[in-house]
Amino acid sequence: MYTRGRGVLDIRGAAASSFAAKTNLGPSPAFPGHAAPMYRMSSGDEETLEGPIAVLVRQAAYEVLHSVEALPEWPLGIKAFDELGLGQKIFMLHQVASALLLRDFPAPELTAPVEATAALLFQTIEHEVQFEIDTPEVRGDWKTWRQLVLECFADDPGIPDGPLPAPDSEDMGEWEILVRAIADGVLWDEDWADNQMADRPPAISGYIKGAMDIPADYYVAIVPDPHERELARLVRELHDLTREPR
What we know:
By secondary structure, the protein is mainly α. It is about 45% helix and about 5% strand. It is built from eight helices and four strands; from the N terminus they run ββαααααββααα. β3 and β4 form a beta hairpin. α1 runs antiparallel to α3, α1 (about 50-70) packs across α4 (about 110-135) and α3 crosses α8 (about 230-240). The longest helix is centred in the middle third of the chain and has 23 residues, at about 110-135.
């Protein structure tokens, strides 16, 4: 479960800008004894993704899972995720996808790998929309990624920059606006993208993190590398979580 500030379907506002409300709230059901803080936004409301947004994010998690399984060392474009080993990638995807989609699953602590994994889901959506536009001959009887994105706005016929695009629009800029509006309902900001923070002198990095309310271990948190049996369980659960057809 993610604790989010604007509610599950309020996806048009700007992302929250402070980490001051992040707190530890107990053990993780996936790894007993490990801390599993809730994902706290400004209001402290506890939410999971539901409806069309959940379908969209579930499909993105499916694509990431199969990419990682097929080509575990292939870079997906998010450095904080790409630098992880196979087991660590599976662990992070399991934690983030479960926290977003399962109501009784507590979110992992907000660290650069965690938020990078969440960001990867939305980047994947953008990439799939672009691929769909570039390869119109690759079609089946499933919903298109553009249809899945539009369904997230079914109760909101417009966005601040104008009306919704047509389902077959090939203007990638329009789709980027929509996907990023959805992502703003989940992501705080892009602190996870600062690849140089861990390399800065401690005094400088400490000052920056203090000024920005970033936890001291945000960039250096250790991602668990599950043993073989645990990894197999996580993979099974991810397949169960993401197998719903679109």
